[in-house]
Structure formats: structure tokens, C-alpha cells
Design goal:
The complex is a heterodimer. By secondary structure, chain A is mostly helical. Chain A contains 14 helices and no strands. In chain A, helix 8 packs across helix 10. Chain A is flat and about 85 Å long. Chain B is α+β, with helices and mostly antiparallel strands. In chain B, 34% of the residues lie in helices and 18% in strands. In chain B, strand 8 and strand 9 form a beta hairpin. In chain B, helix 1 packs antiparallel against helix 18, helix 9 runs antiparallel to helix 11 and helix 15 runs antiparallel to helix 16. The longest helix of chain B is centred in the C-terminal third of the chain and has 30 residues. Classes of the chains: A mainly alpha, B alpha+beta. Chains A and B meet through helix 2, helix 3, helix 7, helix 8 and helix 11 of A and helix 1, helix 5, strand 10, helix 6 and helix 13 of B.
């Protein structure tokens, strides 16, 4: 990979991040004076406290100076205090980030794995009952709203069968050790199943169409003509070349992990970033909204950059283009 | 090939062994004898803070009710004031000084004695710092003294019946909160002690925001010792999840179930649905303007936005026509699925002593023709091309900016239904659905013509009456309504110490409010509870028509017990036992391994 290719993508990512930072800065100040916004909340301030807060927040400084401070604070993870709880935003975010990574991360891995396997099998046996069924299933799952699917699973597995808990990340029995791990797994099952099924279709469809395209390439015919066994053609020649679009999609999906799964977390009362975002939007808790927006944007930019860089390694045609 | 099969078999066996061991470990962790007797409650509303001064929602107030005591409480029968920390209060002849005798047998949850000094400290802190919503209970610049451990002297600058309202104020321990007497409001509101030290029958010992909070029983409180060991409140992201949790036995009680879901629970085994009489009303509250004028004194500066109320709202004929164009019964039947009754006054019928029942023949009946006639007679005869009437004074069409609240009280659906009726009388309701927080911003600047929201209140009507007085503009008033009649009646009842005489003034107030129409009370919605019949000992508060919990008293919590001794339904994570789950997991792993092995063998046989 050329140094120029790498530099171009890094600069592009940094530029995008700066744009997001500036957008966040302007957006937040367009909404109104943060001190006035703070007095909408349940935190009561008298005039002298308001003046002190104005000074603390640097609201009366010139805008460029405010921007420099803001960028510095953001890079240090200082996002201020929640209007509603009064707690440092970074604390709330740090508390919620791991449940989200656990939920969305696990379902991204599972949906990638199963989606790719289904896509490969469907494409390789094009027209078979499995292909028709999996394609129909993938399209259905892909187009199904995750919240609705979650609600159906909730009614079936909780209300009717009574197999899993209705929500939360753990029971209230103060379990420890391996019992706690199993308890979390039990709570994770339904939201994870919902997200996995929701993401699965996309991976299966992309893998299938990518593999079908590769199967028509000359080098596949050549391999077959050389007498390479069918399984080997698939494993060594077709699948690695067809994996590239799925690889990109996987990285994009990982980038979106920090954005949380707002609806599914809400359906299953999963205490993650999605639930935090939902509550913050509902209560106009701007510092929290700002922090989550910035973090999720930064994650998407970072994983896009990683995908671009690795793509360059994996497919030399890209960096030469 | 043989090696592959052996490896797969070993993997399957190993998985089963590991999971089996895990199951036994898990089983050991949950001995029924060691488990506390826990009552599990489901709600969709998390607590906002453990700081009493930041309490504002129903869950916050449930914690206050259980964790603390107040000077006076509410009677079981009709919620009239009854002594709690006091044994009684005596007023001076001018009703400006009240002397209360305080119980000497109450201790804080950390073992220290509760004295009159704690009460004087709490009230003084609130008045000095103008704290939270509590300060309104302490009117006329009062001072509080505790000459000894069992005497509280409350002096006000004007005659008052405030001590008997009674003030809904949790009494705080001075030895914990005393350090805040000289601190700022921000510092006081930032204090989040855990566990929460109070003197009530339960103590908040754990709170995981967005998940659950736990309150453990404290023996020998004023109300005795609870039969349960602890209450765990589970917070659900939506009502459907809460109801499913009740069905699966994860919780024992579901609070505030929507009418549609309530119906789905009817006929469910071991579940009972209870309808609690409404203690609040939904309303169409009008904005009369005046926020800009009141703003500087409240917020210490000029408002950022100008108020935008429509001048025709101030015309009584317009409000009267709107009142005649609303079918309250239809709202109750369709929007609330029958779980509401049409409202007449702003004091709900559960407060029977204070509620004035407007006779049916004097109510504003649903009559579109009459509404049109009222508007015609008032001069609103010209219309726009769209058929909207034009205000003859301002020349503006009667097109109103109506806020509906997305997270409250069926506000959006009620607004939609009303907009249809308004079309029939030449009035346009431009509905603007927003969250309650956003609506609060519009309320602050007066940037709306009316909103569909709700009002609850204390058993005593003083607070609810104050909402419609001039002084409450940017205080608690919906839309800065001002009426000399209501102002006068409000002050009069405040200084009337005979309960029966005060009732007559309150009735006059309700009648005048009904006729002047600062708001239209729409319906009194019922609150639906659903609970497991595995528990008994429910006590409603008030006894007739009240709710068992999330109410005014702690009786249910003190009396609840499982129907079958030791049969605590309880949530251990819900649903299927972990052992069964592990067994299913192990079987699934073995099946997958077998599937892979067989697939490989078939594939190799094909190639052979």
C-alpha cells in the first residue's frame, strides 16, 4: 500500500471528524444558551449561580476561543454535566457503553457469521430449496422493523413460554461469579436474537450476490477446468474474493455499535447507549445527546478508515484506482 | 476422519459437563431458605434522583413515601390529614402560630433519635433555599423553632392552615443534611446519598438507573414492621414488556397499565386487574399570555422568545364554543377505551369532600349547532376560503397552535379527536406533538395557544386552586389566567379555618372556574394496575376506590404476604430455570456438532 493512499484516507477521516465536531458545536449553540437550557431542567439555579456557570462554561468568550476549548474538552472526554441527573456525561456514557458493546457486538459477530454461511450456501446451490428459502427469509428479516420483531419475540418467549426475562441486563438477586455470567447471558438472549435476525438478512443477501458474481468469473471456470474439487474451488477461489463487500459491511456495522440499537434496547429495557440516547432525546438532555452523537460519529469514521486501509491491503486494485 | 469424530464427540461431552457443572453452581447460589421475601413491582418510570429535592415523578414520590415520614399523613378512609410524626398541632387564636407536639419514639434508620430539631431544620432549609416543589407548602414567610426535642413552633406572617394541608415534605435527618445549611442550591441538589437515611418503613439501598431500585424493610417504624423483606422495582422500557413480565411471573405487580393491555390481561390465570378511581384530570388548557411580563422577576432577565398566544383565546365566547364542541364521553370511550369518566371540574371525584359535581343540565353539552351559534353571535361570521372563522378584532383566522404531549395521558389521540370536532365549528387546531420537556419550554415562553396535558394534586385542594390565580403566572399556572373572582375566592379559603365553611368557598371557586373556562377539564382517567393473585394483604388508599400502592399510604407494603407460605413468586431473572436453559444449550451444541460431523462425512462420501 502506498503512503499516499494511507495519508489520503487518514486526512479524509480527520476532516470528517472536524466537520462533525464543528457541526456539533454550532448545533448545540443554535439550540440556545446552555445556562438557560439548564434552568429548564429540574436543577434550580439562582442568578449568582447562573453567572458562575456562564463563566465555568466560557459562554461569554469569543466563539473561536470557545471552539478551541470545546475541541480540547471533547478530545479529553469532558462533555459537561447532564441537565437531568447533574452527573458528568462521561460517567453516564461509560456506564452504558459496555452493555451496548456486549449486545450489538455479539449480534454483529453472530449475524456476520451466520449471514455469510447462509449466503455462501445459497449462492453455491443457486435455485435449490435452501437458496429460495434463505433468500425469502433474508429479505423478510431485512425488511422487518427490529422493534416489531423484538416485540413478537418478547410476547412469545416471555409472556407465552415464560423462558426468558422481559428486560434488563441482570436479575436483582445479587448473583456473583459464573452464576452472574449465566444470568447476563439469559438476559442477553432475546435482544441479541432480535438484532442478529435483524442484521442477518443484509449479510446473507450481500454475500450471496457477491459470490454469484464471483462464480461467473473466468478464474473460477479455469479452476474447475483444471480439475480442482468443487469444495476447493469454493473455499480457495470463490469465497475469499466474494468476502470483500461483506468485510466492508462488517466494519461499517462495527462502527455503528456505539450508536447503540435504540429501539431494541428500549423494547428489552437494555441499559445501553441506545436507551441513554432515547431518554436524553425525550428529556432534551443536550450534553448527553451531544456526547453520544460525537462518540458514535467518531466510531463510524474510525472503522470506515480501518476498512479503507485494510481493503487496500486485501485488494490492491482499490489503492491503485 | 475418525479423529474428527472423536474431537467432535469430546467437544460435545465437554460442553455438557461444563454446562452441567455451571448448572449445579447456579443451583447452589439460590437456596430458597436464604432468599429474602421480595415483592417485585414493574413500572415504566425510573426514579429521577435519590435527592428528595429533585423528586418530581410518581416513582420519586413512592421512594419518599416509603423512606421518610412527614409531619402529618393522610387517613385511610378519605385522605384527610392525620398525625404522623406529630401527635397533634394546636393553632393560636390568630392562626399565625402553630405548636406541634412531636413523637419521642421515632428513630432514623441509622439508629439516631428523630426530634423536633430535625423537622425545624428541614423546613427552615427549604424556606431559606426555596427548595424544590416543597417550598409552596410553607407559605407566608414562616419560621420554625424547636425549643425542645418534642416541640415544634411554626410561626407565619399571616394566618394559615398550612400545617393541616398537610405539607407533603419528607423530614430529613439534620445530622446528615445539616452540612448543607450554608451551601448553594446546586450543591444541595447534587447530594445523592446511598443508602438513603430516613425514618420510614423501607430504605432505598440500591439503584441501578434504567434497571431497578431496591428498598429494604426496616423494622419497628411508625407503621410497624413489614411482612416482606424488600421491594424491588423493575424499570421497563415499555408497557408491553412490563405486562409480559407479569404474565411470566417475573414481577408481582404492574403499575399503570394502558387500557388496551389491561383488557388483554382479563381472564389470565393468577392475574387480577384493578381500576383505581382517577385522582387527576386531563385538560385543554388555554394560554392567555403575559409570560413576557412575568419573566424577568422569575428568571432574572428578558425572555429569548416572544409569547405567541392568539388574542381570540381571551374571548370567553370562543372558549365556550370549544367547550360545547368537545364530546367528553367519546374521548373516554375511544381514546381511553372506557377507562375514564368525563370530567366537569378540576378537582377529581375521588376527593369527594371537595369535588363539586356540576349537575348534568348545567354542563356544557356536546352540541355543534350551539357552538356554531355562540361563535356567530359573538361576531365570528366571516370565514377564510378553507372555512376557518376570522376573528373580527384582530383579523386573524381562528387557527390555534395546540401542543399535544407525546409521553402523557393520551394527549395526542385526544388532540386528534378534538381537531375533528373543531373543524365542524370553523376552528382549526394545528396539533404540535412534542415531549413534555419540550412542552415545558413552550410553556415557559408562552409560545402556544393551548395544550392537552393533565393535572393531579394533593388530597387538599389548595394547590390545585392556586393554579388558576394571577400570582401563579410562570409559577404553576398553565397559561397565566387571571380572574379577580378566582383570586379573591382562593385567598378567602386560605384564611377559612372551619372545614365546612371552607368547602363552600371551594365549591364557589369550582363553579366560577367552570364558568370562566381557563381550561376545559376533559376526562378523569382511571389508573389500571395488574397484580398476581399469589399475594394477599392489599389495602387500598383511600379505602374506597384508591390504589394499593403508588398511593397515599404504605398499608399494602406493610401487610403483603404470599398466599402460600414461602411461595415467593419473585424474579430470579425470570422465566425458564437456568438449569433447564443450560440443558437446552448443551443439547443444541451437541446437535450442531453432530450436524457438522454428519455433513462432513456425507460430503467426503460424495467426493469418494
Amino acid at each position: 500500500m502506498s503512503r499516499r493512499y494511507l495519508l489520503r484516507h487518514v486526512l479524509h477521516a480527520v476532516g470528517t471528524l472536524l466537520f462533525v465536531l464543528a457541526f456539533n458545536f454550532i448545533l448545540f449553540r443554535e439550540i440556545g444558551d446552555p445556562v438557560e437550557l439548564l434552568t429548564h431542567s429540574t436543577l434550580h439555579l439562582d442568578p449568582s449561580e447562573k453567572a458562575a456557570l456562564r463563566e465555568e462554561l466560557g459562554i461569554d468568550d469569543p466563539l473561536p476561543a470557545q471552539f478551541v476549548n470545546y475541541v480540547g474538552d471533547s478530545l479529553r472526554g469532558e462533555f459537561g454535566y447532564s441537565f437531568i441527573t447533574g452527573r458528568p456525561v462521561i460517567e453516564s456514557v461509560a456506564e452504558k457503553i459496555w452493555p451496548t458493546i456486549l449486545l450489538v457486538g455479539t449480534s454483529t459477530i453472530l449475524s456476520t457469521l451466520f449471514g455469510v454461511l447462509i449466503g455462501i450456501r445459497g449462492a453455491w446451490r443457486r435455485g435449490s430449496a435452501f437458496d429460495t428459502g434463505s433468500l425469502l427469509g433474508s429479505l423478510t428479516l431485512y425488511s422487518m422493523p427490529e422493534g416489531w420483531l423484538g416485540m413478537l419475540l418478547l410476547i412469545l418467549f416471555v409472556g407465552i413460554l415464560g423462558w426468558f426475562p422481559a428486560g434488563g441486563i441482570e436479575s436483582t438477586d445479587r448473583l456473583t461469579g459464573f452464576a452472574h455470567v449465566l444470568d447476563v447471558a439469559k438476559h442477553l438472549f432475546l435482544p441479541c436474537l432480535t438484532l442478529t435476525l435483524g442484521y442477518l438478512g443484509e449479510f446473507a443477501i450481500i454475500m450471496r450476490s457477491s459470490l454469484l458474481e464471483v462464480m461467473g468469473e473466468d478464474f473460477i471456470q479455469t479452476a474447475r477446468a483444471k480439475g480442482v474439487r468443487d469444495k476447493e474451488v469454493r473455499r480457495r477461489h470463490a469465497v475469499p474474493n466474494a468476502l470483500l463487500p461483506t468485510f466492508t459491511l462488517t466494519f461499517y456495522s462495527i462502527g455503528f455499535i456505539l450508536g447503540g440499537a435504540v429501539i431494541v434496547e428500549q423494547v428489552f429495557s437494555w441499559p445501553g447507549l441506545g436507551q441513554l440516547t432515547y431518554a436524553a432525546i425525550e428529556s432534551l438532555d443536550y450534553p448527553v445527546i451531544q456526547a453520544v452523537f460525537l462518540l458514535s460519529s467518531a466510531a463510524v469514521i474510525l472503522f470506515n478508515l480501518l476498512a479503507d486501509v485494510l481493503y487496500g491491503y486485501l485488494d490492491p486494485r482499490v489503492k491503485e484506482a | 476422519m475418525r479423529g474428527m469424530r472423536r474431537a467432535s464427540l469430546a467437544l460435545g461431552v465437554a460442553t455438557a459437563v461444563v454446562l452441567g457443572l455451571a448448572g449445579s453452581v447456579f443451583g447452589q447460589s439460590a437456596s430458597p431458605d436464604e432468599k429474602p421475601l421480595t415483592f417485585h413491582v414493574g413500572t415504566t418510570e425510573d426514579i429521577n434522583s435519590v435527592n428528595p429535592f429533585k423528586a418530581f415523578n410518581t416513582s420519586d414520590y413512592e421512594v419518599l413515601l416509603l423512606n421518610y415520614n412527614m409531619l402529618d399523613g393522610f387517613s385511610a378512609e378519605d385522605l384527610s390529614p392525620v398525625p404522623e410524626l406529630t401527635t397533634g398541632c394546636e393553632a393560636s387564636s390568630d392562626h399565625m402560630t402553630w405548636t406541634c407536639e412531636i413523637r419521642d419514639d421515632v428513630t432514623w434508620q441509622d439508629g439516631k433519635p428523630l426530634t423536633a430539631e430535625d423537622i425545624a431544620f428541614t423546613y427552615t432549609l427549604i424556606v431559606d433555599k426555596q427548595l424544590g416543589y416543597f417550598v409552596d407548602y410553607l407559605p407566608f414567610d414562616p419560621t420554625f423553632e424547636a425549643p425542645d426535642a418534642t416541640t415544634l413552633i411554626w410561626k407565619a406572617q399571616e394566618p394559615t392552615l398550612a400545617p393541616t394541608v398537610p405539607p407533603y415534605i419528607p423530614i430529613l435527618p439534620e445530622h446528615i443534611w445539616g452540612k448543607f445549611a450554608t451551601k448553594s442550591v446546586k450543591e444541595i441538589e447534587g447530594f445523592e446519598p446511598m443508602p438513603l437515611i430516613g425514618s420510614g418503613p423501607f430504605q432505598l439501598t440500591e439503584w441501578k438507573p434504567g434497571q431497578f431500585w431496591r428498598m429494604e424493610a426496616v423494622p419497628d417504624s411508625i407503621f410497624g414492621t413489614s411482612t416482606i423483606d424488600e421491594i424491588v422495582y423493575h424499570v421497563y422500557g415499555n408497557e408491553e414488556a412490563m405486562v409480559q413480565a407479569l404474565k411470566s411471573g417475573e414481577i408481582d405487580f404492574a403499575y399503570d397499565v394502558p387500557p388496551t393491555l389491561g383488557k388483554s390481561l382479563e381472564g389470565e390465570k393468577n392475574i387480577k386487574v384493578l381500576r383505581k378511581a382517577a385522582d387527576y384530570h386531563t385538560n385543554l388548557a388555554f394560554n392567555f399570555g403575559g409570560q413576557s411580563k412575568a419573566y424577568p422577576s422569575v428568571y432574572g432577565g428578558q425572555p429569548e422568545k416572544k409569547e405567541t398566544n392568539h388574542p381570540a383565546i381571551r374571548d370567553h365566547a370562543v372558549r365556550l364554543a370549544i367547550a360545547h364542541a368537545i364530546d367528553k364521553q367519546a374521548l373516554a370511550d375511544t381514546v381511553f377505551q372506557g377507562a375514564a369518566i368525563p370530567a366537569d371540574t378540576f378537582i377529581s371525584p375521588d376527593k369527594a369532600f371537595w369535588h363539586l359535581d356540576i349537575p348534568a343540565n348545567e354542563e356544557y353539552d356536546f352540541n355543534i349547532d350551539e357552538a356554531n351559534q355562540i361563535l356567530d353571535d359573538a361576531g365570528y361570521t366571516k370565514r377564510t376560503a378553507d372555512g376557518i372563522r376570522i376573528d373580527p378584532k384582530s383579523g386573524k383566522p381562528l387557527s390555534f397552535d395546540i401542543i399535544t404531549i407525546t409521553n402523557c395521558c393520551e394527549s395526542v389521540k385526544s388532540g386528534e379527536l378534538m381537531a375533528g370536532w373543531m373543524d365542524e365549528i370553523g376552528i382549526k387546531f394545528n396539533l404540535r406533538p412534542v415531549t413534555d420537556t419540550k412542552a415545558g419550554v413552550d410553556w415557559k415562553y408562552g409560545t402556544f395557544d393551548a395544550y392537552v396535558w393533565d393535572w393531579g394534586g394533593d388530597p387538599d385542594p389548595d394547590f390545585n386552586m392556586s393554579l388558576y390565580t394571577t400570582d401563579q403566572c410562570l409559577g404553576w399556572s398553565d397559561g397565566c389566567f387571571s380572574s379577580p373572582t378566582l383570586d379573591k375566592l382562593y385567598e378567602e379559603q386560605r384564611r377559612t379555618f372551619d372545614r365546612k365553611a371552607r368547602q363552600a368557598i371551594v365549591y364557589d371557586f369550582e363553579r366560577a372556574h367552570y364558568e370562566e373556562i381557563p381550561e376545559i377539564a376533559l376526562v378523569y382517567p382511571e389508573v389500571l394496575y395488574a397484580y398476581s393473585t399469589d399475594w394477599e394483604g392489599w389495602v387500598n388508599s383511600p379505602t374506597k376506590g384508591g390504589g394499593p400502592i403508588f398511593a397515599w399510604r404504605v398499608d399494602s407494603y406493610m401487610n403483603l404476604k404470599p398466599v402460600v407460605a414461602g411461595g415467593n413468586s419473585g424474579a430470579d431473572g425470570g422465566g425458564m430455570s437456568t438449569g433447564l436453559l443450560i440443558a437446552i444449550g448443551a443439547i443444541a451444541v451437541i446437535v450442531v456438532v453432530a450436524f457438522v460431523v454428519m455433513g462432513r462425512r456425507r460430503s467426503e462420501e460424495d467426493e469418494a
